[in-house]
Write a structure and sequence with these properties.
Elements: H1 6-10, E1 14-19, H2 31-39, E2 43-48, H3 55-60, H4 66-80, E3 84-87, E4 103-104, E5 107-109, E6 113-116, E7 122-125, H5 132-135, H6 139-165, H7 173-179, H8 182-201, E8 206-209, E9 216-220, E10 223-227, E11 236-240, E12 246-250, E13 258-262
The structure holds manganese (II) ion.
Manganese (II) ion binds near residues 50, 51, 90, 127 and 129.
Length: about 280
């Protein structure tokens, strides 16, 4: 398959950026950090990989501050400034799945698609709730998990404010806690195998997804497993550079995102980057 968009990509610093699990409308959303990230973005194609708006959360408790509206305005502005923007709705914004196949304010809405990198690797791109059945976590556990997550987010925000006053950088309580829970690790493993299996079944080089709020880039069962993380805990993005190399960018709230690792180097995740459950 030829890379028709190469001349366009050449004008931008990056070829593709994948972000997901922003959860606009949810109190835990890191909208201010995302705005800083989007302001500095120079990319040919931006993929919004699901759970962009958290309709579930807004049904439980309406919440829509100016910063969340500013993110929506910014995304539309990016689409209208010449960057190709593709939106793949997730489970928290699944109402938008009714519009898959159409375009809105210059944004293409897709259920899933195959992404070809500059160096010719082909990836299955989807949000990832498609693999929930394979993970087999009970509805009750899911419900308890959601409530727990809300409490952790609230506690985490208090800790974050204290850390900020003391001059420390961003740190996620939920993310750290989940690293301590064996069940959460098993959930992640099962999810990653299910995703890798789907890519292999389609004869592709890898899979790019979100959903479980755990940024990762590694080889699982012989295919590339890439997860772009989230903007609730990690403030992370999956980035394809102009050579087609994939890496994770971790927004620290400072000027420049920190690159976590690249697919070429198959760098393992740092120990504090283990998390679960969307
Ligand atoms: Mn999700």
């Amino acid at each position: 398959m030829s890379e028709a968009s190469t001349p366009v990509a050449d004008r931008h610093a990056l070829k593709t950026v994948f972000i997901s699990d922003i959860h606009l409308g949810y109190r835990g959303c890191q909208a201010e950090r995302l705005l800083q990230f989007l302001d500095q973005l120079d990319v040919a194609q931006l993929v919004l990989l699901g759970d962009i708006v958290d309709i579930w959360s807004m049904k439980r408790r309406p919440y829509w501050p100016d910063s969340h509206q500013a993110v929506v305005r910014k995304l539309v502005a990016i689409a209208q400034s010449g960057t190709k923007v593709v939106y793949v709705p997730g489970n928290h914004d699944e109402a938008f799945r009714d519009f898959c196949g159409s375009a809105m304010v210059g944004i293409d809405i897709r259920r899933d698609f195959i992404h070809e990198t500059v160096d010719g690797k082909r990836y299955l791109v989807l949000h990832g709730d498609d693999f929930d059945h394979a993970v087999k976590f009970s509805e009750i556990l899911k419900h308890v998990g959601e409530k727990m997550y809300d409490v952790l987010m609230w506690l985490g925000q208090i800790i974050q404010k204290c850390r900020h006053r003391l001059g420390f950088g961003y740190w996620s309580l939920a993310s750290w806690l989940k690293h301590q829970v064996p069940d959460a690790r098993r959930y992640i493993e099962r999810f990653e195998h299910a995703a890798a299996h789907a890519a292999a079944r389609h004869g592709l080089d890898g899979v790019i997804c979100g959903h479980i709020h755990r940024p990762a880039i590694r080889v699982v069962d012989g295919v590339h497993y890439c997860n772009d993380g989230d903007w609730v805990e990690h403030c992370s993005a999956l980035v394809e550079n102009r050579a087609g190399q994939l890496s994770l960018a971790y927004w620290t709230g400072r000027e420049v995102p920190v690159l976590l690792g690249t697919m070429a180097a198959e760098v393992a995740q740092p120990a504090d980057q283990l998390h679960a459950a969307a």
